[in-house]
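Changelog note: in this version the structure field was regenerated for every chain. One regenerated record is shown below for reference.
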Amino acid sequence: MQSHRMCLKLLLAFALLLLRCVQGGEVSRKHRDATVTGRCIEKERQALLAFKRGLVDKSDLLSSWGSEAQKQDCCRWIGVSCSNQTGHVLQLDLSNKVVGAHSWNYYSLEGKMISPKLIELQYLHHLDLHGINFNGSQFPNFIGSLSNLRYLDLSSSDFGGKFPSQVGNLTNLQHLDLSSNYFTNAENLDWLPLLSSLRYLDLSLVNLNNVSNWAEVINKLPELTNLTLEDCDLPSPILSTLSYINSSKSLASVALLSNQLSTSIFLWLSNYNTSLVYLDLARNFLAGSIPDVLGHMSSLAYLSLSHNQLEGWVPHSFASICNLQSLDLDTNILSGQLSKFVQILFSTCAQNSLEILNLRLNNLTGSLPDLTNLSSLEVLWLNNNQLSGGIPESIGGMSKLNSIDFHMNSLEGVISGTHFSKLSKLQDLDLSWNDLAGSLPDLTNLSSLEVLNLGNNQLSGGIPESIGGMSKLNTIDFHMNSLEGVISETHFSKLSKLLVLDLSSQNSSNSLVLDVHADWIPPFQLDLLSLPSYKMGPYFPKWLQTQKDLSHLDISDAGIFDILPSWFWSLCRNVEFMNLTGNQIRGSFANLTLEFSYSPELHLSSNKLEGPIPSVLSTASYLDLSHNKLSGSISFLCSSAAIGLSFLDLSSNNVSGEVPDCLTHLENLVVLDLSYNALSGKIPTTIGSLFHIETLKLRSNRFVGQLPSSLKNCTSLVLVDVGDNKLSGPIPKWLGVSLRNLVILMLSSNHFNGSLPAQICHLTDIQILDFSMNNISGSIPKCLNNLTTLVQKGKSSLEIIHVLENLNGTPAYEDNATIIWKGRMYSYKNTLGLVKIIDLSSNRLTGEIPSEITHLVGLVSLNLSRNQLTGQITAEIGNLQSLDVLDLSRNQIEGRIPTSLARIDRLGLLDLSFNNLSGGIPIGTQLQSFDPSVYAGNPQLCGAPLKKMCAAQHVQTDLSNQEDDKDELITLGFYISMGVGFAAGFWGVCCTLIFKRSWRYAYFKFLNGLNDWLYVRVALIKRQLKDMLNR
């Protein structure tokens, strides 16, 4: 027994000794191992302190590093690990995950430089500085001398300069990550094969466009298992060399997304048929059919070919991929029936392993098939295809589904409770932008549901109160349906996690009513609230006061007739989009000291806001204050904070004073509308600094002086409207030279003088040209037929849509134009393509109407009235078949009305009054249907609809002798042709009778018979008359 105890003691002693030996070689960490007793090497401690001095640590993350007595042991510093046996520093890890950086402050540490004293850490085998911002500093060359390094991660550290090929000296490296830096283009990767132990390589965002042999180099890394070369501008492998590659057969994970790879990459990948588990080739230039080679990668579990140009469908060789868990073919041009596509998947052994199926943004057609065979499926994304038919109820049996996205298809039918009866794990359900109808079903059995999006369908009826019990919901989106009824507090009773509530309607007359108590306190804190056209008024909804986290707020057209409460702006500190348009909100911006966290979009038009505009609003990216009662100056534009402003509409207010000459910093402005105010003075020259401006509207103000020549720098201008001001001077020639993109040019109701410059004929895209009510003299240019858009018939594709960058709520703005149409002011937007107008009325133009104007067959309105034009109406006026308005009144035009005018059957407004026209009005239904007043002031005109009738011969002459439409029947040609025809016919018959005996005998026989018949008929008639007289 005693010997057994002795043996046991010896065994325990040996075990303890072995354990100590093992521990002696381990790495100790201050935050993991409390048994560390040794102190670090002094020169290594000094090297680390020198390294710290090269960092900017605003958050004091390295507070444990120091020279104080209690901080002497560097092995206890955060991010530092030492050998328990020798005390040497073995690991330095200051990545975000170690030092505790917050996601909202990614660069918690910044580097001024990396101290060269770090080379003292010669025993270092792990260095991770991921996420430290070195602000473009040169990569430290000495790191190539840390020969014991096995792990090096300098990703997302913002190093710059030449790509560090000296890393090739670190022959013991197993993990290398230099991704997301700012190195210059790498010339080669010839140093990589020196790292024969490398298992993990990530060079993402390093430009490797010049490295044509990258695939050969990778194959010379025998231990490599993980390769990530994302967004490296990689060229496709060279086919001629691939066949000679001696593949290592070790790669398990390959991520080559966002490069320039073509289908030749698949030949290289075929070397790894048995080893590849993860393959991501998204965002390349892969085209054609999905290759069969993928079906031979039997170990593949993750495959992404998204964002390419692949077509067809999954090859049958996929039947061999038994471990496939995720298939991502998003954003290609795959086509054909979805049922056939799925049938191939059903025939594979992967049908029980597939968890993610992403086929969205393709051209797949047909109905949704039964997918229950995909028993492990968790994510099913089929959105943005061309699927039709109903949703099969069998989908309700796929119990593992947690995300369904079918939006942007043509699915129809009714949603019933059985569709999703057993989907207790479902978290996301998006059926928006389809044609689903019926009422909303009870979905309370979806106990895990977080996102419910049924927007833009044809759903009707009320919203069931049971939705208030779905406590995990964070998103409810029912926008653009035909829902009705009352929404009460019960609908939200347990929705404490709700972040998004969008119930916006498809029309302004919303049938949903929000009926909550005045003192209601919602259980949620919303991020997005969209309830346009909900009648919340007349008072401002008090419950909004509880919502402190709003970033998106839309309560437009809500029937609010209240004063804007003082607490409202405190909710808007973090707002990115706000729409209060179309209410009757009163009040001012007095004492507004709010500082927005972002550059918000603010839609506050069509209210009754008054007072001056505060400078705090200049920080907005989109600011619409139109149709209010705002006053004062617009000096807020001088604030440097306005640099991000891309859209500004202050139209229809009472702002006054001069436009400040401080616009040079508004470099992002795309739309500027200051029309219908009381602004005065000259248009500032700094307006020429708005290089990105596309719409400039200054109508109905009191501007004076000339158009500033600096405006010719604004070459992106599409719409210019400075009508109804007091501008003067000649119309600048540079309008047609520099502003070639103009579609709408309106200079009406000003004091412009001089002649019309021929350069306006260079405006080939012009569709609305309005120079009316000025003092323009001279003749109408004959080159108007160069206005290409007006020469084309029919509706143009014109929609002036401005792309507003960096905006979430309004990424694009569709512009409008206000014009006088048939005597009334109209605003056109969606139908702007129908409006093609030239208006030169109320000027002092002289000379004849050029015949070239009749080439503008697309014109819908031509107004040349109230000028001093002479000559005749061009005979080809009838070519303008698209005209709806023609006004030539109050000129000195003479001669007859061309008959071709009667052929314009679309003409709805005609005015030829007060000219010197003469003769008869051409007969045609259209011209006779107008009121006689359109011909008044032409004493020599006659014919309907005037009471003065023309003489018959004059009418005949008017109809037959117009220069443009000569159609006489009896002409010299007629007589000549008649004579020739008679002679040919006479001699043709006579010659035949003379030379052809049978015809001559037949002819004489016919004459003899005719003679006998006539004799008998005359004798009978004579006898009948004689008998009648004898009676």
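Spot check on this record: The two ends are 179 Å apart (CA to CA). The chain is about 15% helix and 20% strand.
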